């Protein structure tokens, strides 16, 4: 048993080491790309403390791009780990943070906040958070009395809430004709441009304990894959573990979506890809998704700034353009 635990610990350490290097590479890419442009080597020497760029580049790198990289990394981690948890809870490979209506509820809340003229923070962010938690409460109330472990009931309830939220979003968009329509559409397509160090710090305070809690429950998540009865037979309090995972993940994903808008396929694609490479042990997958999801979104955000000749495109467009074909390819490989 000790030898087995030592083997798992070595795997976790190796995965963290490799993916940390990947995240660092994505972060350097994110610091190097932008409308003003910056040489990758200049950024690398500045980060390593080997040289100091001029004051303008110093401001661009550390006051504009660094907070954005931090925000993208945290949001990517939250969405990827959230997708991993929902796929384990529902034992459904198509589950992700959108499946329970959390993201749809956040979108409705954010749109109402924008239409009410609230500030981006805390007004719109708070409205988005309340919307996502409201959607979660509606889903849970729809399956109350049937047990929160009825994954089919949870899945169908989430789909219904998502459909209602989508209709509400279209209604509000169709009725908005002024400048607020631009803010609504940009938020719906994902927006990381408004991040700063204060926002990244607040998000880290919320996400850090949530990620640690999910990692602490990674062994019960492994047993849940065997089925509810088998997990209970092995001593897992399935109801309690599921409730904790659901609550912690809802808070984590809600906090991330509030800051970034809707970003599709991160929670769907990253866990799939890492599961194919690393296997199904959640003790390894949780830290892998945290680092891999962060690196993926930082790289997508860099592409969103690099592809257009002028300005930038919403990062949600890039995650969808990359994630959709990648997910189809992974799905075909899994089926074979």
From TrEMBL:
InterPro entries: ABC_BtuC-like, ABC_transptr_permease_BtuC
Record key words, sorted: Cell membrane, Membrane, Transmembrane, Transmembrane helix, Transport
One annotated Gene Ontology cellular component of this protein: plasma membrane
Topology of this chain in the membrane: Multi-pass membrane protein
Main location: membrane
Subcellular location per the Swiss-Prot or TrEMBL entry: Cell membrane
Keyword Transmembrane assigned: yes
Stretches that traverse the bilayer: 12-33, 69-90, 97-118, 124-142, 154-173, 197-217, 238-256, 313-331
Pfam families, sorted: FecCD
GO molecular function, one term: transmembrane transporter activity
Family designation: Belongs to the binding-protein-dependent transport system permease family. FecCD subfamily.
Protein name per its UniProtKB record: Iron ABC transporter permease
Source organism per UniProt: Desulfoglaeba alkanexedens ALDC
Lineage of the species this protein comes from: Bacteria, Pseudomonadati, Thermodesulfobacteriota, Syntrophobacteria, Syntrophobacterales
């Amino acid at each position: 048993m000790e030898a087995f635990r030592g083997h798992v610990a070595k795997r976790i350490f190796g995965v963290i080491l490799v993916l940390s290097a990947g995240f660092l590479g994505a972060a350097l890419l994110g610091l190097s790309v932008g409308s003003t442009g910056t040489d990758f080597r200049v950024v690398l020497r500045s980060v390593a403390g080997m040289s100091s760029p001029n004051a303008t580049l110093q401001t661009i790198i550390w006051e504009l791009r660094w907070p954005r990289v931090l925000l993208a990394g945290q949001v990517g981690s939250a969405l990827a780990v959230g997708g991993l948890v929902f796929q384990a809870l529902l034992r459904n490979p198509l589950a992700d943070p959108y499946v329970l209506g959390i993201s749809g509820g956040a979108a409705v809340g954010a749109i109402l906040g924008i239409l009410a003229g609230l500030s981006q923070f805390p007004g719109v962010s708070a409205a988005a958070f309340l919307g996502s938690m409201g959607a979660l409460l509606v889903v849970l109330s729809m399956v109350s009395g049937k047990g929160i472990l009825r994954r089919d009931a949870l899945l169908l309830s989430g789909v219904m809430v998502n459909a209602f939220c989508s209709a509400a979003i279209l209604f509000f968009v169709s009725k908005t004709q002024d400048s607020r329509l631009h803010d609504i559409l940009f938020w719906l397509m994902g927006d990381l441009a408004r991040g700063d160090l204060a926002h990244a710090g607040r998000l880290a305070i919320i996400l850090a304990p949530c990620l640690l809690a999910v990692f602490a429950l990674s062994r019960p998540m492994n047993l849940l894959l065997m089925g509810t009865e088998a997990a209970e037979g092995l001593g897992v309090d399935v109801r309690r573990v599921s409730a904790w995972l659901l609550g912690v993940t809802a808070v984590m994903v809600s906090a991330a979506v509030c800051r970034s808008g809707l970003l599709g396929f991160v929670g769907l694609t990253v866990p799939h890809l890492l599961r194919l490479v690393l296997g199904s042990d959640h003790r390894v997958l949780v830290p892998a998704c945290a680092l891999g999801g962060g690196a993926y979104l930082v790289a997508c955000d860099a592409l969103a700034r690099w592809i257009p000749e002028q300005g930038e495109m919403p990062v949600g467009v890039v995650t969808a353009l990359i994630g959709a074909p990648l997910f189809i390819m992974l799905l075909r490989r899994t089926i074979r």
